[in-house]
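Case study 2.
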Amino acid sequence: MAIRPILCLPDPQLRAVSEKVGVVDDSVRALMDDMLQTMYDAPGIGLAAIQIGVAKRVIVMDLSKKGEPPAPRFFVDPEILETSEEESVYEEGCLSIPEYYEDVSRSARIRVRYLDRENIMREIDADGLLATCLQHEIDHLEGRLFIDHLSRLKRERAIKKFTKAARSEPGAKKFERAPEIREKRG
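Prediction:
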């Protein structure tokens, strides 16, 4: 297992549409192990393969809370089969857009089909944080970022901020990664 560099906005690879995997073999499992270690190191709760520069439809995630044992999940070739009309709003962040958070409205409930780590086709009904995180990561596989769900003004400000940071000289302030998705209540 290896910790891999995470691509950050404005890297154009983040806009690539990822290719279908088809079969989960040892090479895909090795990729998932690297992704999981990278995600834990960042630290984060979800990571799509494209975020480490691999354009394959692979997602890892762990929604366990601090103090709980790790509960990694693996999704290969995930596809959303159903979405609810009801939406929920979470404050989202992203390992590829560090230190930037905004409220995003997504379907409150979804049904997803995917291959698991053992190459078994599964379906899952998800709501709450799991539904939000799956939609966020599946967006990555389609070349979309959570900022694409924001108003044009907010999206352009974020892109400008990260483009400017990417052009800054070496030694400039680096962003710390602390992605959290928090449900808005009230």
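The chain has a mean pLDDT of 90.
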